[in-house]
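Handoff note, outgoing to incoming analyst
You'll be picking up this chain. Sequence as last confirmed:
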Amino acid sequence: MNITTLISAKEISNRVSELGQDISNDYQGTVILISVLKGSICFMADLLRSIDSDVTIEFISISSYKGAMKGHISLHDNSIEDIQGKHVILVEDIVDSGRTLSFLIELLSKKNPKSIDVCTLLDKPARREVEIPLSYIGFEIDDYFVVGYGLDVNQKYRNLPYIGYIEQ
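Most recent structure output, in case you need it:
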């Protein structure tokens, strides 16, 4: 499988720092970051370290893919602590169709947070089926199947320090 670099590790590092500063500037009190597992784990770890304000973290496990094929949305874990009256930022690796985030926003809205924003490393608008308001975007990309920096294909390539696309 040939993987071509799309976004370098240095570009990722610089942009994540900028996103962390933006979030720090926007929130004076505590903000809860909710990592959408598994793909956002690298992004979440780096983003968390780049935010200067008070931060707590949570994780939610959900999937909408089986390998490279789109499947049904499946919620694996929803043990999110009390978020009522609190600011929440969903941290996502990539937004393409918007279906997964739409599902999550609806689910978390029932817990009455003060606000829900979305921070995504990658935005792929060409694939959008459901419009989602994205407050923080790392990079907008074309319709590539991407791997690296937490993103995978069949659990492979998550450990790449850059984001690449699979040539087909």
